[in-house]
Design a protein that fits this description.
- The structure holds 2 protein chains of 2 kinds.
- By secondary structure, chain A is an alpha/beta fold.
- Chain A is built from 23 helices and 20 strands.
- Chain A has 3 domains: 166 residues, Thiamin diphosphate (ThDP)-binding fold, Pyr/PP domains (Rossmann fold, 3-Layer(aba) Sandwich); 161 residues, Rossmann fold; 187 residues, 3-Layer(aba) Sandwich (Rossmann fold), CATH 3.40.50.
- In chain A, β6, α7 and β7 form a beta-alpha-beta unit.
- The model of chain A has no long low-confidence stretch (mean pLDDT 96).
- By secondary structure, chain B is of the alpha+beta class.
- Chain B has one domain: Alpha-Beta Plaits (2-Layer Sandwich).
- A 4-stranded antiparallel sheet of chain B has the order 2-3-1-4, with helices on one face.
- Classes of the chains: A alpha/beta, B alpha+beta.
């Protein structure tokens, strides 16, 4: 036997250690057994999820809250296919992951063997890159390349599919000192003429807006955005993914733009003569009707992904570069300014149309109040992880974010079921911060099984289930755009469409009972129905050192406003 | 915007899965590949692909940018035919 030889599974675990893995999330199975056999000696701990989708979302939550790649290990076939939603979620939001899947031995590939799936074939469209390992000798180098690809350029998920015979085969191959990929060189920087032009546009603008996205957070440029904004007196709007990139308590903050963004942010973009777009991709949820988007503005688009520039809007100046590098180098060319007229106009909009909501019934909790209670109880410093739907938008609107990586949400894919496992990953990554997961009753049921993981690991996460007895965002669209035909969106027994009607004499209207469900998973749980008890119950749960869940029964008719209907211009914003 | 046939010429690493990724990137957007020709270059580790695709300037430009983002794609050029 060659010196230093060990099997591929051992080489994999060593490589993960060398790559700096701090924690591995996953779920075992037949074609991953050789790897699992080596984990008990690994330098990093293993966290057992309860479903592979949950495992990937946990790794994703870890990655979003730290900026480091999240790592996940699952078996072949169904183990691998269960990761697809998690891969797509990370891929569209640019989150670095390395997902390792077991595969049937190479001799059985293509034979429809037990638990065989063409993993790289299925994962290709929802990942940044996929590797199918062909021999144990390749494993250390592929692991190094996977971590490099996941974290360089626009980050994203990378899949490594390892047939069982490669896990068992012997190899002396060592983890490479450095990675050099022949064809992939994503680093690019601004030219000096681009920087001169950018500074000139900023210095000459009368009504500029900085529009900051997830790329600002990914590149660690939040501080630089604040420096530029304050020096040049530029108000800052963010995307959903950009929440936390600029302090929302700052007078220059316009808060979130887009479909459910603030009127001030949307009107400022509509009136602006310059939009400095940093690490954004001009999602349709922000631009609305593209031909009417920011009609008076020159657009500067800075992004590390060349394919994102000019994809949705055409830019007067497109710069393919790291946002932080651009900001630090352009700053010395930018003149100090205060722009009192522009700011007065914006302050007028903020005063006339503040982010607000109305109590619909005196005895029923409004969902927006839940977010305000969480903000109050955590002094705005919680890591807020959301699921997807109405509560996600209320979480964006009614909590003021000030710290990068403190608002974790599935922005692009809109993956229900993301919240609970992602919060667990975030809580494992950041034990120094309070993690609060905000979920709806729909999404919470998709991945509730993962609550056990929080309890096992004694994570002081607070899960807040905002229960309106329906799939709120679907219901809202049906109310506004489909003639109140509530098809498939009502979870309570009462109020369903005729074709879904249930026996009316069921003992419960709301099912499941989230308090009992949480208790069955070992968590401390509370239900709150009375508006007068909301703040105290939320505060009590958040103070607890245990895993807690609060089920808040809220007004089912509450809608998310303001709203710019899909594909419409800013002028068609509706407020109630 | 009017559609033209473009001939994309891609130099890629000769590795399994590369052809599938490139074809998937084009077909996944609903565009039909009219002609596809893959062959070796003098350097056995590099393959050349010639792909004819019908699309607007904007769409083809996006496809090229996305192709260049792929880990195994060395170089992409295009011309109208």
């Amino acid at each position: 036997m060659k010196e230093g030889a060990r099997n591929g599974a051992r080489a994999l675990v060593e490589s993960l250690e060398k790559a700096g893995v701090e924690v591995l999330f996953g779920y075992p199975g037949g074609q991953a057994l050789d790897i699992f056999n080596c984990l008990t000696d690994a330098k990093f701990p293993f966290v057992l999820g309860r479903h592979e989708q949950g495992c990937v979302h946990m790794a994703d939550g870890y990655a979003r809250s730290t900026g480091k790649p999240g790592v996940c290990l699952v078996t072949s076939g169904p183990g691998a296919t269960n990761t697809i939603t998690g891969l797509a979620t990370a891929n569209i939001d640019g989150i670095p992951l390395v997902v390792i899947t077991g595969q049937v031995p190479m001799s059985l590939i293509g034979t429809d063997a037990f638990q065989e799936a063409d993993t790289t074939g299925v994962a290709r469209g929802v990942s940044k890159h996929c590797f199918l390992v062909q021999s144990a000798d390749e494993i250390p180098e592929i692991v190094a390349e996977a971590f490099y690809i996941a974290t360089h350029g626009k980050p994203g998920p990378v899949v490594i599919d390892i047939p069982k015979n490669c896990q068992q085969g012997l190899t002396a191959a060592q983890y490479p000192e450095r990675v050099s990929l022949r064809a992939y060189h994503p680093e690019s920087s601004a030219t000096s003429s681009q920087l001169v032009k950018l500074a000139k546009l900023i210095n000459e603008a009368k009504r500029p807006v900085i529009y900051a996205g997830g790329g600002v957070i990914a590149s660690g440029a939040a501080g630089d955005v604040a420096t530029l904004a304050r020096r040049a007196g530029i108000p800052v709007a963010t995307t959903l993914m950009g929440l936390g990139a600029f302090d929302e308590h700052d007078p220059l903050s316009l808060r979130m733009a887009g479909m459910h963004g603030t009127p001030a942010a949307n009107w400022a973009m509509n009136e602006a003569d310059l939009i400095v777009a940093l690490g954004v991709r001009f999602s349709d949820r922000v631009t609305g009707k593209i031909s009417k988007y920011a009609p008076k503005a020159k657009i500067v688009h800075v992004d590390c992904d060349p394919a994102s520039i000019g994809k949705n809007v055409s830019a007067a100046l497109g710069i393919v570069a790291d946002v932080k590098d651009v900001l630090t180098t352009v700053l010395s060319r930018v003149k100090s300014a205060t722009r009192p007229e522009w700011m007065a106009k914006i302050d007028g909009w903020k005063k006339s149309h503040p982010v607000s909501w109305e109590q619909m019934h005196p005895n029923v909790i409004m969902p927006q109040a839940v977010m305000e209670a969480i903000d109050k109880a955590t002094k705005g410093r919680a890591v807020v992880v959301t699921d997807v739907g109405q509560h996600q938008m209320w979480a964006a609107q009614h909590f003021r974010y000030s710290i990068p990586r403190h608002f974790l949400t599935s922005g692009g894919m809109g993956t229900m079921g993301f919240g609970i496992p992602a919060a667990i990953g975030a809580a494992i990554a950041r034990p120094d911060h309070k993690t609060v997961a905000v979920c709806g009753d729909g999404g919470a049921q998709m991945t509730f099984e993962e609550v056990v993981v929080a309890v096992e690991h004694k994570l002081p996460v607070t899960f807040v289930v905002i229960n309106n007895g329906c799939l709120g965002m679907v219901r809202q669209w049906q109310e506004l755009f489909y003639g109140k035909n509530y098809s498939g969106s009502i979870l309570t027994v009462k109020g369903r469409a005729a074709n879904e009607r249930l026996e009316q004499d069921l003992k419960y209207d709301y099912l499941p009972d989230f308090v009992k469900l949480a208790q069955a998973h070992g968590a401390e749980a509370y239900r709150v129905i009375d508006p007068a008890k909301l703040d105290a119950t939320i505060a009590k749960a958040i103070r607890s050192k245990r895993t807690t869940l609060v089920e808040v029964i809220v007004e089912p008719r509450a809608n998310v406003y303001p709203m710019i209907p899909a594909g419409k211009p800013v002028s068609e914003m509706v407020f109630k | 915007m009017s559609e033209h046939t473009y001939r994309l010429s891609c130099y890629v690493e000769n590795k399994p899965g590369v052809l599938a990724r490139i074809v998937g990137l084009i077909s996944g957007r609903g565009y039909n590949i009219q002609t596809l020709n893959v062959g070796p270059t003098e350097d056995g580790t590099v393959s050349r692909m010639k792909i004819d695709v019908l699309g607007t300037d904007r769409v083809v430009e996006q496809i090229i940018l996305q192709l260049r983002n792929q880990v195994n794609v060395i170089e992409v050029s295009s011309r109208k035919i």
